[in-house]
Amino acid sequence: AIKEAGNIKRFIPSEFGMDVDRVDGAVEPAKSLFETKSKFRRVVQEEGIPYTIVCANYFARSCLPSFYLPTFEASPKDRLLILGDGNFKEATDRLTKLILAVGYSAFVKGDQTNYEIEASSGVEASALYPHVKYTTVE
Known about the structure:
Layout: H1 2-5, H2 30-46, H3 60-63, H4 94-108, H5 125-128
């Protein structure tokens, strides 16, 4: 559809800040999502469509302050939310399963931080903006 339209200069897919080609060992339902997005990347490349992929380590800035708890804007100082009765076995709805699987891939497995950026295909943002003082998670 992009090629048929003829007026698209650059395609920027929504990757949710993740590099789906670097995910290793994801669990369902995120695994299927990542595989589909990765296959779509190959089609875009094979068709010669100009594209830019933005990977931001799964928007860690948005998730880390709240320990990946979507109900908090910042980490609680005096309490921690335990979902359910604390004996969480499995999510029953697909959306919760997907959110937990993506969080597992990003924060438990470290799929978005355990790789070097190849100069031929990408650049580290801090190299583009050396004047900006960055704060690390450590």
